[in-house]
Design a protein that fits this description.
Length: 325
């Protein structure tokens, strides 16, 4: 285990212990699970949910992400102390279907404290992975597998549409207010301020992507569907909704042909994802590559220090790559 991972695991374990001690000390005053701890203990599944919770909760919440910095959020694995932290937290903010290990912990340990942000985001179906579709076509009698594939086809990447993230912030303020009614007005004010920031970002994206010579966006995996829908771009993901869904040679050749035929000059790689597949398509089609961040987590190489900064860096990357005026 790396030094960074050890530090992170120790921090989550400490948060779990703190939550347990707070709960043990709260019985005398009847003030809830936090007692005199001075705030709610919140766990978030991954970075966008952590950032949103911190913005809405402000000084009244202590929030940490279960996905370590630099880790691929889709592939989250939980240690026993992480599961214990889920059980002891006042609130778990997660996205059902995005991180299977956390879904299991939410079901077994989260109880009423588990809150699925996807309900407020109004998730929609994404593009199914072509290789997975072929596999299922060969074995159609497995109805349960087909049903599971349909569930996986729901696109979880809602935060790349700032207006959907604003709706999650509003709903999160209501959930925090249920847990901490004394600070409900603060949560509402914080959510309103967050919405103002996100609507401002949305307007920047609307203006910046309104006049692009190329309206097809080719990305490493199918993460940018909500962004494309919001800003009038057709998104073609080389891999499926999960970056682990690697395409076959025929699919790579098809996408390379599309890049050439449509005059696409830029194929986008991503942070936290091996760029090899996207680079293969770009090389085959004679296109260049640029990094577009799906903001599933921040790293030292991220092009900003928070969600807003990285989204604005994405806008600049798209304006150049899509030849926007």
């Amino acid at each position: 285990m790396s030094t960074r991972a050890v530090r992170w695991t120790t921090a989550v374990a400490a948060a779990s212990t703190a939550a347990l001690l707070a709960g043990c000390g709260s019985g005398d005053d009847g003030s809830g699970r936090n007692g005199g701890s001075g705030g709610l203990t919140v766990l978030a599944g991954f970075y966008p949910l952590e950032w949103t919770t911190a913005r809405v909760g402000g000084d009244h919440v202590s929030v940490s992400s279960l996905t370590p910095p630099g880790a691929e959020a889709h592939d989250l694995e939980l240690a026993p102390q992480d599961v214990a932290a889920v059980a002891e937290a006042d609130l778990l903010v997660y996205l059902d279907g995005f991180q299977p290990a956390l879904d299991e912990a939410a079901d077994s340990e989260g109880g009423n404290s588990a809150w699925d942000a996807g309900q407020a985001a109004e998730l929609v179906a994404g593009e199914a992975d072509a290789a997975a579709e072929d596999d299922h076509a060969e074995d159609e009698q497995h109805a349960e597998e087909e049903e599971h594939a349909d569930e996986e086809a729901v696109d979880p990447h809602f935060w790349l549409d700032p207006t959907r993230l604003a709706s999650v912030g509003d709903a999160l303020a209501d959930r925090l207010s249920d847990l901490d009614p004394d600070n409900a007005a603060t949560y509402a004010d914080n959510a309103a301020a967050l919405r103002t920031d996100l609507e401002g970002l949305d307007q920047e994206l609307q203006d910046g992507l309104a006049r692009c010579a190329v309206d097809t966006l080719v990305t490493s995996h199918e993460a940018f569907g909500y962004l494309g829908e919001r800003y009038g771009l057709e998104v073609v993901g080389i891999s499926g909704l999960s970056p682990s869904q690697e395409p076959g040679p025929a699919q790579l050749a098809e996408i390379a042909t599309l890049v050439r035929d449509r005059g696409i000059s830029t194929v986008y790689t991503e942070t936290l994802v091996d760029p090899a597949v996207a680079e293969t398509v770009a090389d085959e089609a004679g296109a260049r590559t640029a990094v577009l961040d799906p903001i599933e987590g921040l790293t030292d190489e991220s092009s900003g220090e928070d969600y807003l900064q990285v989204m604005r860096a994405n806008l600049a990357t798209l304006q150049e790559g899509q030849s926007c005026s």
